[in-house]
Design brief:
Number of helices of chain A: 14
Structural class of chain B: mainly alpha
Order of helices and strands of chain A: HEHEEHEHHEHEHEHEHEHEHEHHHEEEE
Number of strands of chain B: 2
Strand content of chain B: under 5%
Radius of gyration of chain A: 21 Å
Number of domains of chain A: 2
Oligomer: heteropentamer
CATH class of the largest domain in chain A: Alpha Beta
CATH superfamily of the largest domain in chain A: Response regulator
Structural class of chain A: alpha/beta
CATH class of chain B: Mainly Alpha
Number of strands of chain A: 15
Strand order of the largest sheet of chain A: 8-7-9-10-11-14-15
CATH topology of the largest domain in chain A: Rossmann fold
Number of helices of chain B: 11
Shape of chain A: elongated
Helix content of chain A: 40-55%
Chain lengths: 382, 287, 344, 235, 255
């Protein structure tokens, strides 16, 4: 129903001749967002945006921040790109040109690459929510990667699975860009550590009419562990069908899927017994995480995912940096963000990010969770 | 060996769903000569309706399926009345474009109400039957049996009842149907309603082992088109046989050749066949 | 308002005025973003002109058009990013590639008529999408192609800048329209229209159906390839989604709204809808709640789109001003001929 | 029984029928003569509701037929057996016949009786009952077509060129059957190219030329008339 | 001029045209008549190459055109009209006619691209030809009107003009006077005479007997796909077989 309201607002805005992306008023800084707000990935985009919205509202409710002696509020300008890099590029141009944003949040690697073509020239910061390592390895001076890269996960998951589950791996991941990169990295890691990849059959999680055939191909090779993962819901289906066909082993779950959500679709925690994945926010025990979850639930009535939490803390960090430097210049912000994150009020930092690498990646601790006896347990990483 | 039989089951499951969808498409084509690109949207709406009835109204799976069938049937009739009927004398390209318009509209409406997230339709048939290693989830069996029953019921309706026979009569000779006093509008509406029911039931049967989302009809409808061309446009047995051919080709091709390319199999098959036999496999008349 | 705009278009000077507007547009625009949007609208318009050849003039609904657009984009993308070609040779290669593939698809698909052709090309379009998505060794699959070269500039002109690129696209668009205009008035264009009016009549006028249909098809796919290559050079990052069937549907909408089988229709339809879509950006997929019914209403009440409707109106206005008879008659022929019965 | 008054039919600017006035009385067998393209089929289609008259009035037993839907005309008792037969080719003979009873579908008993009567009229169809109608010979198909029309229980049966494309021997049989149907109480309006054969069984005839009725008269008058010959071979 | 030998066309098991031999002389009006379903249109389709005959030969000025595709037959000088002619409704009469001369031109895509001399020359020729044809059928005054706005009779004349623009030696006219009133029919008869006077050979299918009888030099009668008679109008009119085919019944009735 929320969508209906969005539509109504949009129509009203359009008919009244208002532009949705008004120029920045005095005492206001525009922050851009482009991401999928419709189409197959709309939910993901909305979740990302919800974290940003929450942060912006908190900042504004506190009367804004101090920018060169002036109280300044945040105005979030969000545009839909349907996950299309081309549309993301158009949107970013629009955000920069019409709203003069110092930074654009974007939650998909394809769009990040498209934006990196011109962001240095057009002078805006890319706030990339993607774990693809290459976004920060290309040396773009105005790109910040918010979540940790997945190479840490890959190593940790592989080590744990090899130790606890067995030596043979069946690859049943998704086929979209992100999943492909993940899969190739885990394959390399697995074989280099002495494991064996016995079956490879990636499937289109978003479009496939039926996973039965694909999963049975994997099962036929009797692997000890299956690599699965795309969006949580289809991942749940893959897990369910694997179990139905008698698969007893464990799962390595790619970080896009959240174990708790996967379990719900698959038909209960017992279906995902032995699954290894990222620690769902709900399992975090820290004060900062608990406080964030509580506030988020008050506001949106549901459990936040990591995409909301990371973007929430990133916007807070961004504002902290602007506050500290008295500047909205992207280069200046980029230089100050590491320190800003470290100085930030810990309640605004659920993942306890404390620094930024030279290349622009937020420094976070890699975590690992395992389903044991029907419970998600956080495991230390050696 | 079990894996081989597993693929047979899988082929039957897929073939049943494809067959049901293609059947509705072929009926409409046979009577009105409209390739209804919006049929996939009806399929999608069918799944969402079942989801709505079960989740929001809390009714039983069967009741939801019946309710969904009724809603989609009405929707299909509306399409016929409001869009295809006014276009009956237009050049053929206009039908197709109007159908695309309906498709875009229905998807947008569904997305407006339910968003584009994946949703899960749970059915009461979650058990798994194990015949000495051959695993058949109950829902899959239900799909196969359900499709079989539906096809038989449709055949009985078309062959044994006067009302059903009017559809066949209309398909075989429009003028002949007029001469014996058959009301063309009635038949057109009935045909659309049946195609809607078939799509809704197929979607409701299939949704529990799959996900429900606005774009779920795309691939299915494209394959249904492949099927009715293979089977001869307008041919009922052709639709069923074609559905099974594609279902099995995908199951076995996906297993023994490559899952990544399994969707290409159907389309490649069609391109190959049409290149050699432009009129389709079972069609009598050339086109 | 609309009629005023249209009557302007009828005048010979109007074209020049339109061109002049397009040339000064970057200076009138508030910012670079608007220029960027206009450039992308022009790119799409070129593709829509291609669709207009085969569907508007020749009467064959080609649903693989988006696929050929993607082939153009990928040819350029892969040649520049992977094979290290520079832009212009790759650009020519993209045109050749789409033309050659268009030829082969054409000779197979054009043996089919009407619905069969439409559905066949729908399948071809989908196969193109699947191949791009799955053939990872060549296309990188869903990862897409990055670091595509921008058009190499001449001297001081840098086509990675939006405005120079805009002029580059504009030049191609003007050429495309100019060629289309010349084609539609030429004997060749009239040949295509004769085929649309009926295979049998066209044949009995001595027209070789297959040769002309294939020619029209190849022309249309080359237009699509041209647009695709420009698109790749503009966005410089492409993925399998470029071959999505929705792009074909979009192009059909542009064509139909503007006016199928007309010269200004594709441009008006594309630029108009692209801008409306941008200004209703928040609607995005929901825009189909408006566009879907609009499309239906359009084919029912204005089957020839804005331009077509307008041209008819103008013609009648001119006719009614001129002395002489004005009689209206429609679809009579078929009915009366059915009554004058057929031989076996 | 059937009255047409000043009926006009236009296809756009082309006037297919001009000012047609004619009557068919109960129990009669009336023949409509005219060359190809004279407008006979248009006239029949106007009566059957397949074509809307642009002017004039068509009445059947004091009910107005103009503007009525084709299905309503059939249930009203005016049944056309069109030129070219228009059978359902893949349906069996029996199914074809039963489709004829569509407007009376609720009266199963009556239909069964009617079916027997029709099969009595065309005994050969009984053997072919389960064959697809499309597989029969031309003559047999014509029998199915007439039989199907009879199943609609017409009070007025309109036959459009039933002898078209049939061998001479079969044609003779066909006319005999038509005479029989008429004598059993069904009023018949018949368009024919076999003018003389048709006239021989007719009570009265009309001659049509260029969409107008140019002549009418009883059997004897017409048989001896040179104009009739002229209408066909333009003497 | 046009010589047909033992022409047969089977559709399925049925002979639509059965062993027809006929010789149409140049500069004459030849009519084909026959009851419904006699195979007249099929006969035309065979000659013009739309259908391929099952057996037999068709010679045009001594050239064997039996198995030539339709467009080549047209190029050799066979023009034809159809019972219905689909024209581009929203274009002018003249625009519709220009394509008629296409088969006498050779310019292709390249010529369009460079706007070659040849293209310009040929387009002018095609336009002139269209005007000439229009003038011939007496429609110069509607040249600038949309097809959608002209009358049924004018459409028929446009179809004639289209066939004439192909520069044919022989024109096949399928029911040229169907659906027009008697006065207009007379106009068409005059037009056909004019065509013959200008050196064309005319071959027509027609049902309007009074027109045929006064117009045709030679009549061929088809019935059930077979030629049952051939000759002058007078001969055909008095041929008992023809009377039988048209009027049916026994000899005594025909007497």
């Amino acid at each position: 129903m929320k969508n209906v309201k969005t539509l109504a607002q949009a129509v009203a805005a359009a008919t009244l001749g208002m532009t949705l992306t008004a120029g920045a008023m005095a005492g206001e800084v525009n922050i851009g967002f482009t991401g999928p707000l419709s189409g197959g990935a709309a939910l993901y985009g909305e979740n990302t945006l919800s974290g940003l919205r929450m942060a912006a509202e908190e900042i504004n409710a506190a009367g804004g921040f101090d920018l060169d002696g002036e109280k300044t509020t945040i105005n979030l300008v969000s545009l839909d790109d349907r996950y299309s890099p081309a549309q993301a590029a158009t949107n970013a141009k629009r955000l920069k040109q019409e709203s003069n944003v110092p930074a654009v949040f974007i939650p998909h690697s394809g769009g990040v690459f498209a934006l990196q073509d011109f962001n240095e020239k057009d002078d805006f910061l890319i706030m990339a929510y993607t774990s693809v390592p290459t976004v920060t390895e290309k040396g773009n001076s105005l790109t910040l990667r918010i979540p940790p890269t997945f190479d840490g996960y890959v190593r940790a998951f592989t080590d744990y699975a090899l130790e606890h589950e067995g030596k043979t791996l069946g690859m049943a991941g998704a086929t979209h860009e992100y999943a492909k990169i993940w899969a190739s990295m885990i394959e390399e890691e697995w074989t280099s550590k002495g494991g064996e990849v016995v079956a490879k059959n990636p499937m289109d999680y978003n479009k496939s009419a039926d996973f039965f055939t694909g999963v049975s191909r994997i099962i036929a090779e009797n692997p000890d562990v299956m690599f699965v993962g795309g969006a949580s819901e289809p991942t749940g289906l893959v897990v369910q069908q694997a179990r139905q066909m008698g698969f007893q082993g464990g799962f390595i779950v790619m970080d896009q899927a959240k174990i708790d959500e996967v379990a719900e679709v698959a038909g209960g925690m017992e279906m995902v017994e032995g699954a290894i994945g990222v620690v769902p926010l709900s399992v975090y025990e820290t004060e900062a995480a608990k406080s964030f979850i509580e506030r988020y639930q008050d506001k949106y009535g549901k459990m936040p995912g990591s995409e909301a939490a990371y973007n929430y803390l990133a916007l807070h960090g961004l504002v902290e940096a602007m506050d500290a430097t008295e500047s909205t210049d992207p280069k200046v912000i980029r230089g100050a963000i590491g320190k800003a994150l470290a100085n930030m009020d810990s309640s605004k930092n659920p993942y306890e990010v404390t620094d930024v690498t030279d290349k622009g990646g937020f420094v976070t601790e890699t975590t690992l969770a395992v389903v044991k006896d029907g419970k998600i347990v956080r495991e230390p990483i050696e | 060996m079990n894996l081989f039989f597993q693929q047979i089951i899988n082929g039957l499951t897929l073939g049943s769903i494809y067959g049901l969808v293609a059947l509705g498409l072929t009926l409409v084509y046979g009577i009105l000569h409209i390739p209804n690109f919006a049929h996939g949207a009806l399929y999608m709406v069918g799944a969402f309706m079942s989801y709505f009835f079960m989740t929001d109204l809390g009714v039983h799976y069967w009741v939801a399926m019946a309710g969904s069938a009724a809603v989609v049937a009405v929707l299909a009739i509306l399409c016929e009345r409001l869009v295809f009927h006014p276009l009956r004398n237009s050049p053929p390209i206009h039908d197709k474009i109007a159908a695309i318009g309906i498709l875009l509209f229905l998807e947008a409406v569904v997305q407006m109400f339910w968003g584009s997230d994946f949703r899960r339709l749970s059915s009461p048939f979650t058990g798994i039957m194990n015949f000495d290693g051959l695993i058949i989830p109950e829902q899959r069996l239900l799909i196969i049996v359900g499709a079989f029953v539906l096809v038989i019921a449709l055949q009985l309706f078309l062959r044994k009842t006067m009302t059903g026979a009017t559809i066949i009569a209309m398909a075989q000779s429009r003028e002949g149907a007029f001469l014996v006093g058959i009301d063309a509008n009635r038949v057109a509406m009935m045909t659309f309603a049946i195609s809607g029911v078939l799509a809704a039931v197929a979607a409701s049967l299939y949704a529990p082992i799959n996900l429900v989302y606005p774009a779920m009809g795309h691939l299915v409808i494209m394959k249904a088109f492949v099927i009715i061309i293979l089977g001869g446009m307008g041919s009922i047995p052709g639709a069923i046989a074609g559905g099974m051919i594609i279902g099995f080709a995908e199951a076995f091709g996906g297993f023994y050749i490559s899952t990544a390319y399994k969707d290409i199999i159907a389309f490649g098959l069609l391109v190959l066949i049409l290149s050699v036999r432009p009129q389709g496999l079972f069609a009598k008349g050339a086109h | 308002m609309l009629f005023k705009l249209g009557s302007l278009l009828m005048k010979p000077g109007a074209k020049m005025a339109l061109l002049a507007f397009a040339i000064v547009f970057p200076f009138l625009a508030d910012n670079e973003y608007q220029v960027y949007v206009m450039a992308s609208a022009f790119v799409w318009a070129i593709a829509v002109y291609g669709l207009n050849i085969i569907t508007g003039y020749c009467g064959q609904l080609n649903l693989a058009h988006g696929g050929f657009f993607a082939i153009g984009a990928y040819t350029l993308g892969l040649l520049t990013a992977d094979a290290g070609w520079s832009f212009w040779p790759a650009f020519v290669a993209a045109l050749v590639m789409t033309a050659v593939l268009g030829f082969f698809v054409g000779i197979v698909s054009l043996r089919l008529k009407e619905h069969y052709f439409a559905i066949f090309t729908l399948c071809v379009g989908f196969i193109i999408y699947l191949l791009i998505d799955k053939w990872e060794e060549l296309t990188h699959g869903p990862i897409g192609v990055r670091d595509i070269a921008a058009p190499s500039g001449f001297g001081l002109v840098d086509f990675t800048e939006t405005t120079p690129f805009y002029y580059l696209v504009l030049a191609f668009l003007v050429f495309s329209i100019w060629f289309m205009g010349r084609l539609s008035r030429s004997l060749l264009g009239r040949t295509f229209i004769a085929i649309r009016n009926g295979d049998e009549l066209a044949q009995s006028l001595g027209i070789n159906l297959m040769r002309n249909k294939v020619l029209a098809f190849v022309l249309s796919t080359t237009y699509a390839g041209l647009a695709g290559a420009l698109y790749a050079g503009m966005v410089r990052f492409i993925g399998p989604e470029e071959a999505n069937i929705n792009h074909t549907f979009d192009m059909i909408t542009y064509l139909l709204v503007g006016g199928i089988g007309t010269l200004t229709g594709p441009l008006l339809g594309t630029v108009g809808i692209v801008w409306i879509t941008q200004s209703l950006q928040f609607l995005e997929e929901y825009r189909m709640i408006i566009f879907g019914p609009l499309l239906v209403i359009l084919v029912i009440f204005f089957p020839r789109g804005i331009t077509g409707q307008f041209l008819t109106w103008m013609h009648h206005k001119a006719q009614s001003l001129a002395p002489g008879k004005k009689r209206r008659e429609s679809k009579v022929q078929t009915a009366s001929a059915r009554e004058a019965e057929n031989n076996a | 029984m059937l009255q047409l008054e000043n009926v006009d039919v236009c296809y756009g600017s082309f006037k297919a029928l001009t000012d047609i006035s004619m009557t068919v009385d109960t129990g009669e067998l009336v023949v409509l003569l005219g060359a190809n393209g004279a407008g006979k089929t248009t006239l029949f289609n106007a009566i059957s509701g397949l074509v809307k008259p642009t002017g004039g009035d068509i009445r059947f037993e004091d009910k107005h037929l103009n503007g009525m839907k084709p299905s309503a005309v059939v249930s009203g008792g005016v049944v056309q057996c069109a030129e070219g037969r228009k059978l359902f080719p893949q349906m069996s003979v029996q199914q074809n016949l039963m489709m004829g009873a569509y407007v009376h579908r609720r009266d199963r008993e009556g239909n069964r009786k009617r079916l027997n009567e029709v099969l009595e009229l065309f005994p050969i169809l009984e053997d072919k009952a389960s064959q697809p109608a499309g597989s029969l010979s031309g003559g047999q198909q014509q029998m199915v077509a007439i039989g199907r029309a009879m199943m609609s229980r017409p009070r007025l049966l309109i036959l459009d060129e039933p002898s078209l494309g049939l061998a001479p021997l079969v044609v003779r049989q066909m006319f005999e059957t038509i005479r029989q149907i008429n004598s059993l109480g069904t009023t018949v309006l018949l368009a024919e190219q076999n003018a003389f054969a048709a006239l021989k069984i007719a009570d009265r005839a009309y001659v049509m030329e260029n969409g107008r009725l140019v002549m009418d008269g009883d059997r004897e008058t017409m048989l001896g008339n040179e104009e009739v010959r002229k209408a066909y071979i333009g003497a | 001029m046009l010589k047909v030998e033992h022409l047969t066309k089977m559709f399925g098991g049925l002979a639509a045209v059965n062993d027809v031999s006929v010789d149409f002389e140049a500069g004459k009006i030849n009519a084909i008549i026959g009851p419904n379903g006699a195979g007249k249109s099929t006969f035309f389709n065979l000659i013009s190459g739309l259908h391929q005959p099952t057996s037999g030969r068709i010679l045009l000025d001594g050239v064997d055109v039996t198995h030539m595709p339709c467009d080549q037959v047209a190029r050799l000088g066979v023009g034809r009209t159809f019972q219905t002619t689909n024209l581009f409704e929203q274009a002018t009469v003249l625009d519709n006619l220009i394509v008629g001369h296409r088969l006498r031109t050779r310019s292709g895509l390249w010529d369009v691209l460079i706007n070659s001399k040849r293209l310009q020359r040929e387009e002018k020729a095609a336009r002139d030809k269209a005007m000439e044809a229009l003038d011939f059928v007496g429609l110069t005054h509607v040249a600038g009107q949309f097809i959608a706005d002209i009358t049924q009779e004018e459409r028929k004349r446009v179809a004639f003009a289209l066939a004439l623009a192909t520069d044919p030696k022989i024109v096949l006219l399928d029911e040229p006077a169907a659906g027009v009133n008697p006065e207009e029919t007379e106009g068409f008869a005059a037009l056909m005479r004019k065509m013959v006077d200008n050196g064309l050979t005319v071959c027509l299918i027609e049902h309007k007997m009074d027109m045929i009888m006064s117009l045709a030099d030679k009549i061929m009668v088809l019935d059930h796909g077979e030629k049952i008679a051939e000759g002058t109008p007078e001969e055909v009119r008095n041929n008992p077989v023809v009377i039988e085919a048209y009027l049916g019944g026994d000899e005594d009735a025909a007497a």
